[in-house]
Amino acid sequence: MAALSVALVIVAVVGSGALPAGATTVTAAANVNVVVTGEAAIVKGTTAPMDAASPVAVQRRLPSGAWSTRAVGRTDQAGRFSIPIAPTGQGIYALRVRAAGSYSPVFYLRVLGPLVLDQGGLGPLRLGMTVAQARATHWVVGTTQGCELSGETAAVFPAGVKVSAAFLDGKLLWISLDRTGRTAEGARIGDTEASLSVTYPPPAWNVDLDTSSLQMFGVDLLAVSRHGKPRYGITADPHTKKIKAIAVPYTSICE
């Protein structure tokens, strides 16, 4: 496992030994190389010869070396299959697909931790990290141009990981959950603005609503502070009052 590159390219490992005559040939791969715990990846592939409605199973190799079935499905008329799998653990999953007594080559899926922001970052990804340190966590896989007005450099996350972040002067400045996730204190994407007063009760916490950006950006901005220090920035829909994004330590909006 240590030989896997940081780029996390799926590596196929062909099993030894020839298949018996007439055996099914199976090809398979995940639609992403990296997934967050609880989020689904899709294992897609084909069988040959084509066999409609043939059962197929996604299997994971356990530390003992034994293979355990994690999800099942069936092929379509063209021998194709598409099976969702939602890992519950973390680490590198060695996977294969079994069909009609044959197996696909092994492929790998890296599973990151759940999307839980705390006051200092996201899992091993911490505010203040350099780009190299951030890449070493496997959450960040590169950088690209960020907001020109602020001079930020945007972090690039693996496909399927719905997180945004930016560096300034080489240090990780902020992190934002853009679709799912929660804070360590329990605020979740989809919660209402009103629930924040319960999650972050005074006097230690304070939640301030800023509507000055409503006309330009069409969102409510809420700043969550603890003992006067900014801790989280929250974006909410002004009509439904539901949380759309959560950032640490504040929301960054580029004009």
Summarize the structure.
This protein has about 260 residues and is mainly β. The chain has 3 helices and 21 strands.
- Kindly estimate the percentage of residues that lie in beta strands according to DSSP: 35-45%
What's the helical proportion of residues?
under 10%
The number of helical elements comes to 3
The CATH first-level class of the largest domain comes to: Mainly Beta
Largest sheet, order of strands side by side? 13-14-15-16-21-20-19-18
Number of domains: 2
Give the low-pLDDT segments. 1-21
CATH architecture of the largest domain: Sandwich
- Report the CATH topology name of the largest domain: protein yfey like fold
Sketch the topology as an H/E string, one letter per element: EEEEEEEEEEEEHEEEEEHEHEEE
Biggest sheet descriptor:
8 strands, antiparallel
What Rg, in angstroms, do the CA atoms define?
22 Å
N- and C-termini, Cα separation: 43 Å
Mean pLDDT level: 89
What do you see in this structure?
By secondary structure, the protein is mainly β. The chain has two domains: 25-112, Sandwich (Immunoglobulin-like), CATH 2.60.40.10; 116-248, Sandwich (protein yfey like fold). 5% of the residues lie in helices and 44% in strands. It contains three helices and 21 strands. It has helices spanning 131-136, 196-199, 214-217; strands spanning 25-30, 34-36, 41-48, 55-61, 67-74, 80-85, 91-99, 102-103, 107-112, 116-118, 121-122, 125-126, 142-145, 153-156, 163-168, 171-177, 182-183, 205-210, 220-226, 229-236, 243-248. An eight-stranded antiparallel beta sheet has the order 13-14-15-16-21-20-19-18. Strands 2, 4, 5, 7, 8 and 9 form a six-stranded mixed beta sheet that branches. It has a four-stranded mixed beta sheet with strand order 12-11-10-17, with no helix packed on it. The radius of gyration is 22 Å and the shape is elongated. It starts with 24 loop residues before the first strand and ends in a 7-residue tail after the last strand.
